[in-house]
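Memo to structure team: turn this sequence into C-alpha cells by end of day. - J.P.
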Amino acid sequence: MQLLNGKVALVTGSGRGLGWGIARALGRSGARVCVSDINDVELARAESDLKADGSEVMALHLDAGDLSAFQDAVDQIVARWGRLDVLVHNAIYMPLIRFEDTSPELYWQQLRVSLGGLFNGCRAVWDVMKAQGGGHIMGIASGSSKKGFKDEVTYCTAKHGQEGFIKALSLEAAPYGIALNTVGPGKIIKPTRITWEEFDALPESEKADWADPVELGKGFVWLAAQPTHRFSGFRFDAGVIADTVAAEGYDFEFSPEKVTLLPDDFRAAQAWYANYPD
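Reply from structure team:
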C-alpha cells in the first residue's frame, strides 16, 4: 500500500537493524528515503536493498552527533526532493558498560549521538517543516525509556531524556503542524551491536527469535501517514501497530491498546495535552 506517496523521509542509523527495517518499510510505502549511517559499508548495503525494493533512495554518510553535518544532510535532501516530511532518529552508540568503567568521554559521546542527535535533527529540520506546514519527527523508545538496567546507565539516561524532549517540544511544535513522538520496537529485536556479517553467520533458529525489522517498520509507516495534528507527544510501539495493521489494515479504528504496550500511559498523556493551557 502506497500510503506515503509524495513524502520524503530521513532515517538515521539505517545501515542495519531497526533503522534499516524502518527505511525499507517507508520506501515500500511510497516515500522517497534518505538512508544515513557512519558505517559506509552497511550504508551501501541499505541503499542497495532499498533500490532492489524499487524505492527512490539516496544515501548519506552522517554522524548524527554533528549539528553541521546534520544540517548539511537536510540541505542535500531538500535540494534533491524539495521537502522533508519524516525524520526518524534511530542512530545510537550503545556500549554495554558498568558506570564505574564509564569515562566522562564515553558518557558524553553516547549522549552526543542519542540525545544530542535528536536535538540536532530537530534543529536541522525545524525551518523546513515550518515552511512546508508540518512534518513528523520520531525518536526511538525502548524498555530503557521507562526502566533502569545494569550496564545501561548512559543508554537509559538518553532514552529517558528523549521521552522528556519529545513531550515538551511537542507543545511548542503544535502551532507549526510538527508532530513529535517516540516509537519503541514493541517486540524483541536483534541486538544493536550485531553487525550484518555476524548476523548472516548466525543459525536461522537464533534469528527466528527476533522480530523482522521491516515488519516493525509498518508501525512507523502508519504514524507517518497520520495527520500531524492527530498525535504528538506520545509513545507508540511498532510491533503492536504492525499486529493491528495485519489484523485490520492501516485504516483501523484507533484505540491506545492497538498502538502501544502502555495504553494507560497513553491515555494519561492524552488527558495532559487536552488540559494543557494555551
